[in-house]
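Researcher: Please translate sequence to structure tokens.
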Amino acid sequence: MEKKFASTFMGQGRMRTLLAMTQERQTELLSAYLEVRLVANPGPLAAADDLMSATSNLMDTGPSFDEHAFGAALEKALEAHRAFTDRCREDLWYAPRWWQLYRVGWWSARWKWVRGK
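Model: Translation complete:
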């Protein structure tokens, strides 16, 4: 799809539109990265650093240079995105771990709630 928009005969208006879209996406990406840096644990933060470097390499490569290099950079960015998502999924797992199943306060509150029905 990018190749369709990045042709050699592209008009100035379309080029300005694509440049504006790219700048908006870079701004969104940077603000999300800074929010992650503000609140993340070390594991997701390392994965976010890898994702940010892979994405910046992808944006530096650009679709108009070498198609093979762009494809390799795109695959690397997608793999970093998958790793980041998996790492965050592990970190934000809200279900109790096997060692947290017996919580005296939780079970007593549950039994009070059940008896109160």
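Researcher: Any highlights?
Model: The longest helix spans residues 12-39.
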